Q: What sequence folds into this?
DNA sequence: CAGTGGTCTAGACCACTGG
DNA sequence: CAGTGGTCTAGACCACTGC
């Protein structure tokens, strides 16, 4: 079978390409569109390679390459002997998959949360631009603290979060406070919004008086400012997060390849 | 042919494994050991997949998978129609492959260098621990500024670098100042040390009086502290770098998968 | 044991590069 | 045009999981 033949179903899903789109990329785009459509939910198993190959009239190796790339991009998780599953933030080994803050000593990263605020507001200029909304559109604004779990509890992170109001209709302080596990897990199961990737911009700033009070540092103390924009399927931004990190005993870790 | 047969040459290069080492990983380890041995120099082309397959008595697909992983880990660079080449820091499109600092406006990242110091010193406790030396061993210490290229030149980065003296014997201020292109390119071509990966720890700190003077900020102004430990082949640390970044008009960018 | 992903092969053909 | 990496196939067999 030739890569250019048949496959109407695929060509519809195929994304813009340089000049030539190999078959496995068309399969990949097709699978991605099905993930986006919610055909398989986070944590669920997708059909086996052989079954997909048979259904799509393609060899196993071609499906394999498509699934490999999706697994590498954290959309799918392969488990030998069991199957291939839709990735989820709900059962992360690390409590927070996107949080790169680590204690200086290799100790545990157990942190407790303290919800400060959760309300619906107009997005405003900055959040609207990042989230591709109008400034007058509604947004959910959350403010919260992360503190060390060990007593005495020390504030470490002050987060300020904006979410598009249209996507998070029933999100209340009660729901947030009651939820155990990663916040992104709640977003998945309650609102069907799965974070796929994120971009962060990091700066050093001086604490304002309010920030200093909440984080237990002196005003104008240096803090790490981490601005994160998280995306769901289709490069659609769905969360803006402004985190202030105390870094006397923690650091932001990064790996450069 | 079975994955467990023959292949004395490979088993020697095979690294510790969970319980089962597929053939392509043995090939990968073999290629990696040859890269480490300098059999092919940075920028050079390695033998074609078919030739390697023939020499190693293995199918092209197996070599392919090994090379794929090495390319993904930035050891090799594939160029369709031309060949597969040893990765190098000398011909990076971006001037600095490991520098994640970006201007807030999407403008160019052109920076100029100003060498402040380059001398041979005792490593000292901190650098010795990081570089796996004795505190009494000699190290090369470099201090330099990076400034915006556009006039008026603004200081942006203050770097302090430690290198193991034993590996960088002829490294002098003159050599450094005369070198055009990335510093890591000089390390490759003059000292045969290729940086393979790096770890960074990022913090917010207050500028000391000296640091403030060099960077043109007020004392105790917030700065981004980026501590980088770079490794060459075999997980061997070969550079400790302590960078202080001004982040009023620049930010450290990161992608989270 | 059956079902899954993981490895390996052999061979055909395609896309890209440079002489 | 020859030589390179890139794609695709069909089939065999291996390793891991759970019943």
A:
């Amino acid at each position: 079978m030739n890569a250019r033949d048949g496959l109407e179903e695929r060509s519809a899903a195929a994304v813009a390409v340089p000049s030539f789109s190999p078959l496995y990329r068309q399969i990949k785009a097709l699978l991605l569109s099905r993930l986006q459509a919610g055909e398989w939910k986070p944590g669920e198993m997708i059909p086996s390679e052989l079954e997909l190959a048979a259904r799509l009239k393609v060899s196993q190796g071609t499906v394999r390459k498509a699934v490999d790339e999706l697994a590498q991009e954290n959309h799918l998780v392969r488990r030998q002997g069991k199957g291939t599953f839709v990735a989820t933030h709900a059962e992360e080994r690390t409590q927070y998959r996107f949080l790169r803050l680590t204690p200086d000593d290799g100790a545990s990263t157990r942190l407790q949360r303290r919800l400060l605020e959760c309300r619906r507001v107009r997005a405003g200029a900055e959040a609207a631009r990042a989230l591709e909304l109008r400034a007058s559109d509604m947004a959910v604004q959350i403010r919260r603290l992360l503190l060390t779990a060990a007593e005495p509890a020390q504030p470490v992170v002050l987060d300020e979060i904006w979410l598009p109001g249209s996507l998070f209709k029933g999100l209340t302080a009660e729901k947030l406070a009651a939820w155990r596990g990663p916040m992104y897990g709640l977003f998945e199961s309650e609102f069907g919004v799965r974070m796929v990737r994120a971009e962060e911009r990091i700066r050093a700033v001086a604490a304002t008086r309010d920030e200093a009070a909440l984080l237990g540092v002196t005003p104008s103390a240096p803090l790490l400012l981490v601005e994160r924009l998280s995306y769901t399927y289709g490069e659609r931004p769905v969360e803006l997060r402004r985190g202030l990190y105390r870094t006397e005993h923690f650091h932001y870790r990064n790996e450069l390849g």
Chain A touches chain B through 31 residues (CB under 8 Å). Residues 1-17 of chain A have pLDDT under 50 and may be disordered. The radius of gyration of chain A is 21 Å. Chain A is about 30% helix and 35% strand.
